[in-house]
């Protein structure tokens, strides 16, 4: 029978090892799932329902409280999308006590593909990504086709020193599952983050790090991260007013098709899709019926085809706008494509997801007191550069560097200032550039032509930058 330990929500220093591990909780049924940072043998095994709060069985009977150890930060992350989970990974690894509140009852990423570009992979690998888990298809460039004639031009934009580290085309669920493993899994550094589904946050007091849930519960934290997407409630609290993301006038159909169905269109020739440069296939559609664009690629180890069909949609603000479309509607809007492209689009199963593309204006501010915005909550934009989720991952990586183990509650506002200084210019750049490269004819497709834009986006090393910034302004010599 192990001893009962009196444990505070905070670090416990084991007497027989120099490595701390973390235990804590708000009540007997509310155990911070505690995993030792490095040592499996010291795992907490249970909380005891009939004992007062913060009493736990602990397998390490020699553990004792070290009052001088720095307390971990209590972190509340709002939203369990790619940005929220990435932040949970970054901060649990530093020993902080992280909980993620997600409004959905069942959190799954929508059935669609996503390009995970090298700048995001660099951060994920820093956290211990198992690359095979992403089941990615190598994303080396794009082949664009004239939509009418079917003629293609391949643009290879793999950067010279990236041969070992290629961007990947993935299914969102595979990315989300890997992030979930790294965030809440018992393996890995620091205490696993706790995910609470069906918890809708309705208010936040950024100055003191308090959030209010729909059921009235109030949670106090040292740090609140608003990773709550396009319609962020934390954004309202930080800015002090509602900032909506206006309709861009573009919507898109998104569907996934079983790649084995390609056999059904063999007689039309699918080589344009399967052969040649590994990566995206894009259609240039000349103006006439409003801007339209189609992007297609293989993902999930080549077993699925991801189709994204963007079109000018004047009905976005109509109350009867529907988030589902039909194959007939898709084929009507893209009726004038070359038959080989129509053959692929027509493989889509209905109903097809329809997505509104909305763009946030540049925000004055991403931070206030103990709260900060991250991901789409800070810079939702058009998918032209395919960098929205990548930026969220980079931002999470930066937060991890700026809030290391030992950060105190009173340090948080200053570290968030640093986060904003470091990250906002890049977020603002992607927000504007993605919009302009879609809407200004002279800039269309610039990403695929310009080495300057590619270098800026893909060579970026968010961890290195943030580590250097931390060393300069907060490191021991600062
Ligand atoms: C067509 C398309 C293609 C794209 N392709 C790419 C690509 O190839 N590469 C790339 O990097 N990016 C791409 N993006 C962008 C990318 O999808 C987004 O930038 C990214 O998913 C944003 O993640 P997030 O975590 O910030 O927000 P979200 O994914 O929106 O997550 C927010 C979460 O917060 C929850 N939430 C909201 N409000 C509350 C609340 N009040 N309380 C609790 N929970 C709440 C939501 O339920 C949700 O789970 C694309 C976008 C589109 C539309």
UniProtKB/TrEMBL annotation:
Protein origin, superkingdom: Eukaryota
SUPFAM superfamilies according to UniProt: FAD-linked reductases, C-terminal domain (SSF54373), FAD/NAD(P)-binding domain (SSF51905)
Keywords: FAD, Flavoprotein, Monooxygenase, Oxidoreductase
Domain FAD-binding, first and last residues per copy: 74-431
Record region (Disordered): 1-20
Gene Ontology molecular function, alphabetical: FAD binding; monooxygenase activity
UniProt key word Magnesium: no
InterPro entries in the cross-refs: FAD-bd, FAD-dep_Monooxygenase_BioMet, FAD/NAD-bd_sf
Name the record gives this protein: FAD/NAD(P)-binding domain-containing protein
Species of the source: Mycena venus
């Amino acid at each position: 029978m192990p001893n009962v330990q009196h444990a505070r929500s905070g670090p416990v220093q084991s007497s027989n090892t120099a490595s701390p591990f973390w235990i804590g909780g708000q009540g007997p049924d509310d155990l911070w799932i505690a995993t030792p940072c490095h040592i499996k043998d010291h795992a907490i095994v249970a909380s005891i329902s009939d004992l007062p709060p913060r009493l736990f069985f602990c397998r390490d009977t020699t553990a004792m409280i070290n009052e001088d150890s720095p307390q971990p930060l209590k972190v509340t992350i709002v939203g369990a999308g790619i940005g929220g989970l990435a932040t949970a990974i970054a901060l649990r690894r530093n020993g902080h006590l992280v909980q993620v509140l997600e409004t959905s009852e069942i959190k799954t990423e929508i059935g669609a593909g996503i390009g995970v570009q090298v700048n995001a992979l660099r951060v994920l690998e820093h956290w211990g990504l198992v690359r095979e888990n992403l089941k990615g298809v190598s994303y080396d460039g794009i082949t664009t086709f004239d939509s009418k004639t079917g003629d293609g031009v391949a643009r290879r934009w793999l950067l010279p020193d990236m041969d070992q580290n290629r961007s990947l085309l993935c299914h969102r669920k595979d990315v989300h599952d890997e992030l979930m493993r790294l965030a809440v899994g018992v393996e890995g550094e620091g205490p696993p983050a706790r995910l609470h589904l069906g918890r809708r946050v309705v208010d936040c007091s950024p100055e003191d790090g308090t959030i209010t849930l729909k059921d009235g519960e109030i949670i106090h934290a040292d740090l609140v991260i608003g990773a709550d997407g396009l319609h962020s409630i934390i954004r309202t609290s930080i800015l002090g007013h509602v900032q909506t993301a206006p309709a861009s006038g573009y919507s898109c159909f998104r569907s996934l098709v079983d790649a084995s169905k390609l056999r059904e269109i063999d007689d039309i020739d699918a080589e344009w899709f399967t052969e040649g440069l590994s990566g995206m296939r894009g259609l240039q559609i000349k103006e006439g019926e409003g801007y339209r664009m189609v992007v297609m690629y293989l993902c999930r180890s080549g077993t699925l085809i991801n189709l994204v069909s963007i079109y000018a949609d004047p009905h976005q603000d109509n109350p009867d706008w529907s988030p589902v479309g039909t194959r007939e509607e898709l084929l009507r809007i893209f009726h004038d494509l070359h038959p080989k492209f129509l053959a692929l689009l027509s493989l889509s199963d209905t109903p097809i997801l329809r997505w509104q593309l909305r763009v946030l204006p540049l925000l004055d501010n991403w931070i206030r007191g103990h709260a900060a915005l991250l991901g789409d909550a800070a810079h939702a934009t058009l998918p032209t550069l395919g960098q929205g989720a990548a930026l969220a991952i980079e931002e999470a990586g930066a937060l991890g560097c700026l809030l290391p183990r030992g950060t105190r509650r009173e340090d948080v506002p200053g570290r968030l200032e640093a986060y904003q200084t470091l990250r906002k210019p890049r977020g603002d750049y992607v927000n504007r550039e993605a919009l302009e490269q879609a809407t200004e004819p002279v800039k269309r497709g610039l990403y695929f032509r310009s080495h300057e834009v590619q270098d800026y986006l893909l060579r970026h090393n968010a961890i290195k930058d943030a580590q250097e910034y931390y060393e300069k302004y907060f490191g021991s010599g600062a």
